[in-house]
Specification:
membrane; 157 residues; 3-stranded antiparallel beta sheet; alpha+beta; 2 helices; Pilus_4_PilV
Length: 157
């Protein structure tokens, strides 16, 4: 008899964990680690998406600021999405030559493609002193936004 008034069976009392307890603990741990791995994957995807949105907003702001400094050629900054088809950023987007509206626009379109991928495009619409800049790109890493991410920035110059 032990000190709690129970009768001992066999020579010793049970010590340690049973195999079932260990397996259940391992399953719980594995499920938790899989959840953490999924959380990390989603975190990376959303971080990439936020980075691309920040780049798009900065690019839209930069072209509006450029247009503010060159108001005399404002109408020359109008762009349609189809004009992005001929842009090739593989050679790099260097600033060289005369800085006029055409060169600034060419530089900006190259930077859009370089920063947001080869499928990126955009448009600039000018109505009087109001400007609307739209940039579109594909976010393949987020299925909910695949092929449909865009930023629109409007300003009065």
């Amino acid at each position: 008899m032990n000190r709690f008034g129970r009768i001992r069976r066999g020579g010793r009392g049970q010590g340690g964990f049973s195999m079932i307890e260990v397996l259940i603990a391992l399953v719980v741990l594995a499920v938790g680690l899989l959840g953490l791995a999924l959380l990390q994957t989603m975190n990376l995807r959303y971080t990439k998406s936020a980075e691309q949105r920040t780049k798009a907003i900065n690019l839209a702001s930069s072209i509006i600021d450029t247009m503010r400094t060159n108001r005399s050629e404002l109408v020359a900054y109008a762009v349609e999405e189809s004009q992005f088809e001929d842009v090739d950023p593989s050679a790099g987007c260097e600033r060289s030559g005369a800085l006029n509206a055409a060169r600034n626009l060419e530089q900006w379109m190259c930077e859009v493609k370089e920063a947001l991928g080869p499928e990126a495009d955009g448009s600039i619409t000018i109505a009087g002193s109001s400007v609307r800049v739209q940039i579109n790109w594909s976010e393949d890493n987020l299925p909910s936004l695949a092929g449909g991410a865009n930023v629109v920035l409007e300003s009065v110059l």
